[in-house]
C-alpha cells in the first residue's frame, strides 16, 4: 500500500504558537519517522492538540516550520498536506450513512477518485475495522465503539503520509478502549502506517507506541521508546507520568544505606522496585499504613519517616496495618533540585 | 426495580398524574379552540350571502353560496331586470349566480395579480434574506471578525425601529430610485428587514454545529465553500427552515410598507384585501374569501417544514 518514502514523514522545527497570552506550544521540535507509531503523552492543556492542528494546517505557527515528506508546508492549506486526521469527537456526519461517511474524504473535489475505487476502498476499510455490516446504517445509529471505528475508518480510507489522531479513544468506556487499542495497533502494523497519536492515557501510550514523546506546557520533555521513557526518564515529571501506581518520590536525605550521586535532591523508586521484608537488621524501616487488595496483587501503603510510599506485594504475604517492615530499593532514580535526572553511580 | 417504578408512576416526579394530564389536555384544547375559531368564522363567512354575513345576531347556520368567491374574482355592473332578460342565457354557473342579483360580470378583478405579487415578493425576499443571512451568520460564527459584537448589535438595531419611523425616508429614497410600486423594491425592502432576524437566528444554529465537522472536511481536501455546502448546510437545515418560516410570515403579512409604497403594479394582498368594496360598503364574504386564500400558502409552507420547525425553535435556543 505504501510507496518508498523519505525516512522522516513529518518534521517540526522549533514551532511556537500563542493564543492571546497563552503559549500553547513553545519551540517544539519533533520528527515522526516512516512507519512509526509516535504517541504524544501529556495532560490536557499541554499543547498536544495544538501541535496536531499545526501539522494539519488548521492553525498557523507563529514561528518555526512544518515539513511533510521533505516539503515545507508551513503555509499550505490543510487540504494539500496529505494528512488524515481523527478528531476526538464529532468526526462523523450525522446526515450521512456510514458508507457515505467513509467515502467522504475520497469524494473530495480535489481528489477525484472514481466511484468504483471508492467503493472498493470503503469496503476494504470496513472489513479491516469489522464494520462491514453497518455500512448502510445512519452514522447516528451506531454504538460508541462503532462510531469511533468509523471515525478511524474515515482516516484509513485514504493513504496519506501520516495519520494524526487526537485522543480517538478517550470518549469510550474502559472495555472498548482496551479492545480498540489492540485493534489500532494491529491495523497500524498491517498497513505499515505512520501515526502521530495524542493522548493523556499512559496505558495507551505504553501499549501502542513505538516511541513516546512526553509533553508539558507546550514543550517536549523527552522522546524515546516506551521502555526508555519508563526505565530512564529524563526528569522526575516524566518519571511520574508513567507507571501506576505512580513512582515514589522521596527526599534524598531520608535515605539510609543507599549510595546516591552528589547533588541528588529527590530519589524516585518505582513501586515494583521497592521491596519489603520482615525486619532483619536493615536500617530503612517503614510502617504498613494500609493494604489494598486488587486480587492479583496488593498495593501496600507505607509510612516512612512521614512520607507515604506505595509498593506491590504478593496477596498471600500476610501484612497488617501498623506492622513494621524493612525496605530495600532496587534501581533508584536520582533527580537534582530542578527535577532533572542525574545518571546513577556505577556500582 | 423497573416494574415497581412503572406501577407507581402516578407518584413519579417525571410522569404526570392522570389528573394533571386531563387538565393539561383541556388547556391545550381550549387554546386550540380559541385560536381556530376566528379562522373558522372567516372560512364560513366566505360562504355566506351579503345579508347573512352582517346579520345580527350572527348566523351560525346559513345557506352556503359561492357569491363571495365569485365577487372576489370578478368586477360586476348593475343592470335593469329588463336588460338582463334580453341577454342570451348565462354560459356558466357564476354568470347565473351574478344575474340573480341583477348584475353582469364586466371582467376579472385584480385579486390574481395581487396574489401573484404576494407570492413573488414573499418568497423572493424570504429566499434572499435566508441566503444572505446564512452566509453572514456563518462568517460571524466561524471567523474572527473585528468588532463582531458591535456589527451584530447594529444589525439587530435595524429591527428596533417601527416602520412609521423610517417610512418617509424610505419613501423618498424609493421615489428617487424609481423603486416605488415595483416588486424589486418590495423584495429589497423585506429582505433588508428580514436579514437581521435571519443573521441572528442562523448564527445561533451554526454556533451549535461543531467546527470539527468542517475542519475534518478541510483536512480531507475540501475548500471552505465546499465544506459549507456539504457539511454545514445539511446540518443547519433545521435552523434554515425555521428562519425561512419566520421571514415568510413577516413579508407575507407586512401591511404598513405595502400600503405606503405600492398602489398598483406591485400591490400585495394585505393592502388589497380591506378595500374589496361591494355596493354600499365592504363586501364581507369576498373579504373573507380573499383572507381564506391568503392564509393557504403560509399554512402549506409551515406544514411542509413542520418537521424541521418543531426541532428548530428549541434547537439553538439552548446554550451549553
Kindly describe this structure.
- The complex is a heterodimer of chains A (347) and B (320).
- By secondary structure, chain A is an alpha+beta fold.
- Chain A has 2 domains: 8-241, Rossmann fold; 248-342, Nucleic acid-binding proteins (OB fold (Dihydrolipoamide Acetyltransferase, E2P)).
- In chain A, 23% of the residues lie in helices and 31% in strands.
- Chain A has 8 helices and 19 strands.
- In chain A, strand 14 and strand 15 form a beta hairpin.
- Chain A starts with 7 loop residues before the first strand and ends in a 5-residue tail after the last strand.
- Residues 1-6 of chain A have low confidence and may be disordered.
- A two-stranded antiparallel ribbon of chain B has the order 1-2. A two-stranded antiparallel ribbon of chain B has the order 3-4.
- In chain B, helix 2 crosses helix 15 (284-304), helix 4 (67-73) packs across helix 15 and helix 7 packs parallel to helix 10.
- Chain B is built from 16 helices and 4 strands.
- Chain B has 2 domains: 50-109, no CATH class; 112-268 and 292-314, MetI-like (MetI-like fold, Orthogonal Bundle).
- Chain B is mainly alpha-helical.
- Residues 1-10 and 315-320 of chain B have low confidence and may be disordered.
- Helices cover 68% and strands 5% of the residues of chain B.
- Chain A binds chain B through residues 56-58, 77-81, 83-85, 87, 89-91, 93-95, 104-105, 108-111, 154, 158, and chain B through 210, 212-213, 215-223, 226, 230-231, 234-235.
